[in-house]
Amino acid sequence: MTRAVLSAGSNVGDRLAHLRSVVAGFGDDVVAVSAVYATAPWGGVEQDDFYNITLIVEGERTAHEWLAAGARLEQAAERTREVRWGPRTLDVDVITVDVVGGIVVQDDPTLTLPHPRAAQRAFVLVPWLDVEPDALLHTDVGARRVDELVAQLDSAETAGVRRLGDLDGDW
Ligand SMILES: Nc1ncnc2c1ncn2[C@@H]1O[C@H](COP(=O)(O)OP(=O)(O)OP(=O)(O)O)[C@@H](O)[C@H]1O
Ligand SMILES: Nc1nc2c(c(=O)[nH]1)N=C(CO)CN2
Question: ipTM of this model?
Answer without folding.
Answer: 0.97
